[in-house]
Amino acid sequence: MNPRLDLIRRRCADLDADAALLTFLPHVRWAVGFTGSNGVLVVTPDEAHFVTDGRYATQAEAEVQGAEVHVPGYRLFEHVAEAELLAGAETVLLQGDHLPFTEVERLRQLLQEVRFLPVGGLLDEDVAAKTEEEIARVRAAQAVTDEVFAAILPFIGPGVSERDLAAEIVYQHLKRGCERMAFEPIVASGLRGALPHARPTTKTLRPGELVVLDFGGVLDGYCADMTRTVAVGDPGEEARGVYQVVLDAQQAALDAAAAGRTGRDLDQAARQVIEAAGLGEHFPHSLGHGVGLEAHEWPRLSSRVEDTLPAGATVTVEPGVYLPERFGVRIEDLVVLREGGCENLTASTKELLVL
Q1: Torsion sign across C-alpha atoms 343, 346, 348, 354
Q2: Residue where a domain stops, chosen among 122, 149, 174
Q3: In a domain, 254, yes or no
Q4: pLDDT digits (tens, 9 = 90+) for 201-237
């Protein structure tokens, strides 16, 4: 028995559908355990079928839980039609956020008797509400990323390039057992720190600069994510003052973070602190996002999102202030939302480190 397949069946029933065809691989992995790069999952009231290509025949047999494995070759949708895996289904749910229109049309041509219904956000909340086993995996990934932060601190100093520092971040994660990075590390020094998603360049670190470091590894399929801002020598009183505002804003959001709140609630808790300091126009992004099998997943912590946050969701809390052509500050922790509060999975100090 696979309870996640039963949950998918309940979502079908909620939407008056007879079956679901899942194509988004992180959700396929969540449902049946498959970790490869090509596959679709068919879930009907009485059966489940996983379809992949020959590269993954052995892997799928070992990993897939609760679904019959089919290995027809690369024409996966054609096999769904030819093997009549959706026989008797009149309405079938699709993951509308993740399946291109051309693929939806191909399915409609292959199975003209079926009404395919693309649904936005299908399974997002279910995937976000993590089990204690999943939380343990996120916690383990975050612990490695905390270790990496400590390991790179001696490497940071004048003359080191952003790209060299980014390479060291990647190396230290792989050395500690991560299968890959959750995303390309951000290393942004000096005036480049005012670019929230700056890519590392050949620019070298200079005395007095702040350096924004945003990174996370993937361990056992689950992602980590953290940001710390450090100083290369004394950054000056203004930078220290902005740093304290961002730290206070983050703490306000952490104090507000709990299951049952909304993303807007948490965003506003941090934003109010930054606005009160006269820096509101320099906080241009939302407060955070979900993290799990993806580096960015539902929910969003945003002033424009009223979604209620479920217990077990692992989310980032990452306010920032960015002063164009001068410097930026961002501080990010990864937390688990619990009833009545949150559990912070990030252990690294948030004291401004002057290196």
Answers
A1: negative
A2: 122
A3: yes
A4: 999 999 999 999 999 999 999 999 999 999 999 999 9
